[in-house]
Design goal:
5-stranded mixed sheet, alpha/beta, 7 helices, 16 strands
Length: 441
């Protein structure tokens, strides 16, 4: 079994959205005063889970759209929270590499940058069907922190005091080399071989009061403490939080047991080790990568027949067609079907198969999952419905084998437990799409 996901990114995330500046360079030779910045760092002691004010930006008026609630990283998508950068344009990220007096780095910044890029950018390009590009700007040198790595007591459940000290020192040394106003995302990457660095501590640190640096407000920083080589897709997972996506794993109270019982292999925000780590269609809709015309709201009580394209297939993406041969041309049709089940809940249906980020999927078919806009990050805002509750699959590779065979397969029908909703997968088209019948009453 692969190592299970170590949960990341706890805390509230609100970031001032700024227009990226093309051609920006992360390095500048002149030395500037950091007195005002260091004073502002005192705000770090006041991290909070308080929700930011909502900024109403109409997203859709479809009957199946859930309203965004006060829940942390709410799955509601009737409006976009403007405190987060929406990944529908190019975004620039700076990678700053931090060393310590008690350790000499055994790796180079170039090697650590290559651990994460271009893999992270490639993931988002595939997930967004080419609508979003994450552009990394990595410094070429180590920047020396003023204190030993052990002085910061780095660990998963970091104290506010130690975390504030780390970020205060990091910004102090980096501000001499980086113009932070040029970037939408900040990655602080620590020397993985320093004795005080804990690889379990990688997460997004969030501030309830913005840090003012270079005339820009910074509300979140991705602190990277990964080994070399790192966990697969770890930076993509953390960056997902920067885009207001929640953690979908289940964290046991005692830290023991299965972490992946909510969604298994079926979304990056559940597990970065997943066999099918593409983002759910609901998340793609939320992020602006699916248009309303690619979502079908099923309201009729009688059977509704529709054709679902594989979620991972974009224009020109090869998928396995009905005859077993690769087919092309998918990417602009219906990707997601939704049935409203309550004031803040829906059932979602999407076709998952070996395409795009899902190329290593264990079982293909129509995946069913519940979405709750009132459930906060880490508490199960999305739960996959298992169409085969008495079996499992891909035990050697899946992060949670009981859900690896969750999709409704070709020729099968399935009634969602607790709901008067039934789905039948009737066939495949020559292009590789799935023909589905959904009865919602």
């Amino acid at each position: 079994m692969p190592r299970q996901l170590t949960p990341r990114g706890l805390g509230r995330e609100t970031l001032r959205e700024r227009l990226s500046r093309s051609g920006a360079s992360g390095v500048r030779p002149r030395l500037r005063s950091t007195a005002a910045m260091c004073t502002t760092m005192s705000a770090l002691a006041a991290t909070s889970m308080v929700n930011v004010p909502s900024v109403a930006e109409p997203f859709s008026v479809a009957p199946c759209v859930l309203a965004r609630t006060a829940a942390h990283h709410s799955e509601g998508l009737d409006t976009w929270n403007a405190a987060y950068p929406r990944p529908t344009r190019n975004l620039d990220a700076v990678m700053v590499f931090l060393s310590f007096p008690d350790s000499h780095p055994l790796t180079t910044p170039a090697e650590l940058s290559a651990d994460h890029f271009p893999a992270t950018s490639r993931y988002f390009e595939q997930a967004s069907y080419g609508r979003f590009t994450l552009r990394p700007h990595a410094l070429r040198q180590w920047l020396r922190m003023p204190r030993p790595s052990t002085a910061y007591a780095i660990r998963r459940d970091w104290t506010v005091t130690h975390r504030a000290a780390y970020l205060r020192d990091a910004f102090s040394v980096a501000n001499r080399h980086v113009d932070f106003s040029r970037y939408d995302i900040v990655y602080f990457v620590a020397d993985p071989d320093a004795p005080g660095v804990d690889s379990d501590a990688t997460k997004v640190v969030n501030l309830d009061r913005p840090l003012r640096v270079d005339g820009a407000d910074i509300r979140r920083i991705v602190t990277v403490f990964e080994n070399h080589p790192p966990d697969r897709l770890v930076l993509a997972h953390e960056t997902g939080h920067v885009f207001d996506l929640p953690d979908l794993y289940h964290r046991p109270v005692d830290g023991k047991g299965d972490w992946d019982t909510h969604v298994g292999d079926w979304d990056l925000m559940g597990s970065q080790f997943a066999l099918a780590p593409d983002l759910f269609g609901w998340h793609k809709w939320k992020l602006g990568w699916l248009e309303s015309r690619q979502v079908r709201c099923v309201q009729d009580a009688g059977p509704v027949r529709l054709t679902l394209e594989p979620l991972g297939a974009g224009p020109g993406t090869p998928v396995t067609g009905a005859a077993g041969a690769p087919s092309f041309g998918l990417g602009r049709g219906t990707k997601l079907a939704v049935v409203r089940t309550g004031p803040d809940s829906v059932l979602a249906f999407e076709a998952r198969g070996p395409a795009g980020n899902d190329h290593a999927v264990c079982r293909q078919g129509v995946l069913v999952y519940r979405v709750s806009s009132g459930t906060r990050s880490g508490r199960g805002p999305i739960e996959v419905v298992d169409a085969h509750p008495h079996t499992e699959a891909c035990r050697e590779d899946s992060v949670y084998p009981p859900l690896a065979d969750a999709p409704v397969a070709l020729g099968e029908s399935f009634t969602v437990p607790g709901e008067s909703v039934r789905v039948a997968v009737e066939g495949r088209t020559a292009s590789g799409a799935w023909t589905v019948r959904i009865s919602a009453g």
